[in-house]
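Slide 14.
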Amino acid sequence: MAKEKNVEQITDMDVDFAQWYTDVVTKAKLIDYSGVKGFFILRPYAYALWENIQKELDRMFKETGHENVSMPLLIPESLLQKEKDHVEGFAPEVAWVTHGGSEKLSERLCIRPTSETLFCEHWSNVLTSWRELPMLYNQWCSVLRWEKTTRPFLRGREFLWQEGHTLHETAKEAEEETINMLNVYATLFEDFLAMPVIKGRKTEKEKFAGAVATYAVECMMHDKKGLQAGTTHYFGDGFAKAFDITFSDRENKLAHPHQTSWGVSTRMIGGLIMTHGDNNGLIIPPRIAPVQVMIIPIASHKPGVLEKADELTAKLKAAGMRVKCDKSDQSPGWKFAEHEMKGVPLRVEIGPKDIENNQCVAVRRDNREKEFIPLDELEAKIEALLEEIQTGLFNRAKKNLQENTRPAKTLDETKTLIEEKGGFIEAMWCGEETCELKMKEDAGVTSRCIPFEHKKVDEKCVVCGAKAEKMVVWGVAY
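Slide 15: predicted structure.
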């Protein structure tokens, strides 16, 4: 059968998770490989998914007072050099433009890996008074980072993202902004992508180059590895001083503003795949699915079937759902496998017997349960099923996170747990970078974050045994 052939094309995720992932992103028609290594083509289905995510985020940004802007693609080398820590952090990943047409440029131009320096230059030109603060900006764009190893969505040389950049009158306001935007990200991941998060602060070693503090939402994938899903950064006034950004404060004295930045990217699509997918392909949460319901006519050559399928499609569309009807000449079995592969949350089958009984068959993608739905109750029942799927996916992912997060009191215990069970480790840390590095060298784990929801799993550092107040979540991450 066509269905069996389609399924066989995907490697079993428990045999080779990395190959399973690659199979899914190609077979589900999310990406194609371009002629330049590390540059991926987002096919229409992937871009539709990104657009749905973008729509929800953009709405939340605007609800919190942020405005969209557009900054240039290129950064002069002299501008990039103004913030020492920042440029050192990005130096290995920067791509340079050296020629304009056939002429060599007098100064190299960096293709933006991120846009802090561009925003800073702009603000140094336009900011004058405290009355103009806060400046709450966001930009939707692509950035370029010359990564050595690449993987679709998770690590590409060019990727789509949003980067928020804000200026504030006081440190308190800027610090509040970093937490507020972290909470926006948490809402996106949990309420729309059905991905539970751990919110926390990054260690000094793991923070963003040039930041005073970096915060993150961390997620666990199906294979028990971690994914840094989104970050927010508090810069203090370091960038403002480096770029001479000043304003007249309330006492008519010159002051430096306090700054933040924050971003998420198409990397979250990779996280979505690895959180919810199975051996039949994608599973997409209904709230961000490009197609929420796929209607499949059964015995479509028989009188009235296609007409009824069109009628159901129109009804569900009128109720505000994203619906398509597959009227292609492929067999029903092929269609079932194809739309399962693409993760469509709900399949609705309608055939002659169903029409006779004034019903349709709804099949859930998450658990494959079938339900007969009276056509008179179609809209309400389908809407309820989509919500059940959304909630069920979140609960399943949360169970995976909770069951695979374990406390450890020693380095040996950490190493054993990671080798035998994987997942996240909750362990105390003294704050010394040497101990953080030792965890990576001996146990193969990195610090994911210092969670806001603090647990005291012991009194001593997991590595050196010194007194420890900070509990860190550790894990192997993408």
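Speaker note: Residues 415 and 443 are 5 Å apart (CA to CA).
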